[in-house]
Amino acid sequence: MSTLTAAPAVPKKKERGGIWLTLLAWVVGILFVLPVVWMVLTSLHSEADAATNPPAVLAPLTLEGYREFFTGGASPWPPLLNSLTASILSTALVLLLAFPAAYALSIKPVRKWTDVLFFFLSTKMLPVVAGLLPLYLFAQNSGLLDNIWLLIVFYTAMNLPIAVWMMRSFLSEVPVEMLEAASMDGASLTRTLSSVIAPVVMPGIAATALICFIFSWNELLFARVLTATVAETAPVFLTSFVTSQGLFLAQLCAAAFVVSLPVLAAGFAAQDKLVQGLSLGSVK
Amino acid sequence: MTSVAEKTRGRTGEPKPKPSGGASRAAGWVRRAPLLPALIFMIVVTQLPFVATLVISFMDWNAYYPDEVGFAGVDNFRRVFTDVNMRDAVWTTILLTVGVVLISLLLGLGIALLLDRKFRGRGAVRTMMIAPFLVVPVAAALLWKHALYNPEYGLFNGALTWIWSLFGSDNPPQPDWISNMPLWSVIFALVWQWTPFMMLILLAGLQGRPLDVVEAARIDGASSWQIFRSMTLPHLRQYLELGALLGSIYIVQNFDAVFTITSGGLGTANLPYTIYQIFYQAHDYGRASAAAVIVVVGTIVIATFALRTVSSLFKEDPGR
Prior knowledge:
Chain A: Its main location: membrane. The structure holds 2 protein chains of 2 kinds. By secondary structure, chain A is mostly helical. Helix content of chain A is about 70%, strand content about 0%. Mean pLDDT of chain A is about 80; it is low at about 1-15. The longest helix of chain B has about 30 residues, at about 85-115. Chain B is built from 15 helices and 2 strands. Chain B has a two-stranded antiparallel ribbon. Chains A and B meet through helix 1, helix 4, helix 5, helix 6 and helix 7 of A and helix 2, helix 3, helix 5, helix 6 and helix 7 of B.
């Protein structure tokens, strides 16, 4: 997003209305970030201060909500670790499968490559809920219910189409001369992939990994159906707050913030990768 | 992206003679080989379950009555088509998807235009805008349900109390947001999460605009509105389509927000939630599968049109 700094030279006469547009942009930005700020602020209040009307914005800060979340009831650590395992391993698996596939589709396209590409995308459009029941029955009969590996395999399938599309678009930026040089020098396929192409498309791979990680981390429906106490993920753990009663708002906000923290951190750190990834690599 | 140094890399190996013409079939497989693992994986994990769903949809199978499993013919489909809940779910899904995609696309466009200008703190505003998209969907839905919408201590009613007290009134309106407008509650929460997504795509589109042409038009005396109508909007068209398509793919399948905010009650149960209920709570495997098959067929019809749009979107960078 280097374009962010290179704005058009606005003619002088437009400057006057500009201050209002600037103000408007700030107001809109603040409105959108407000719920997130409110979440963080509430998580730092005591339960009594969190449930006041009108809101007690300036109430004293405390880590009570976080203490209650981590030590109060069932420990959130196993679900958090499960989410981390499922997200990282499925992302690794996606990259491993998608990179060669994208290579075959872009560098030296096989015949009917567009068909294959659209097959991948079409699996993304089919409602996941339609495949849920057979997977559940399969898991039940093979003893894989509540097993994190089943989620890893499913998340890999969920993200593979996105990854293939993204990587294909990044790979098509690799100059042909480079590949010709490599093939003339007799480099093998593995060598071409690892030492010629990989370094060039590294930023694209990072964008793909970021998106796959976020989508796996966020997933709820399959995790809810296919896991129970052992392989439960962080979003499933959060659903225990859906029907909460009594004073729990600070703890809820602490939980929501802790679970969102990896995604917030990764997303903010790689803002420009985010848009590349979300548009399947078609927006650079 | 490529530097000269990288271009000269990879010249260490000995030159090898090219394979002779007779090996073309083998060469074809060499080309195809890298594709196969991913392809086979996708077929096994996503296509086989659909075949199973299709088979189960013709069966009489409810986990509560394990002795009565058998062939049901088209009974399940008849029950799905005559089910009022299913028809409501179709309608809810359409409203939810169209509502969220349209509103977030329009808001996203407006905000992208605001952020396309150069002003103090633009990076900060952009970062603030992205935040909603980075909150885990379940966490966001919980936040809206309990911390914002709650009639007693939610931020919305809290803010109303505060504003009213500024004017000396101690009788502010305190609506029960979720009960009064359940579907809109879900839509607003989702719009909040998806507007940043649309904004990011449209902003990238705006910044890829050929600026010299815009400048030329401005010097020729074209107004801002004329430039927007006849230059910016046509340029943005493919980005708008892309945002709408990708947004639809994700929001049509939304489960988290419906599950969390309303638990599918008050007429907000969309198709994913309804099928989840038939399968997970009623354990009616046959009927759930029939519903799934119908949804898949419907999706294929809609997706065929959508894919045409995509293929034109990605046309500009053809493979080699």
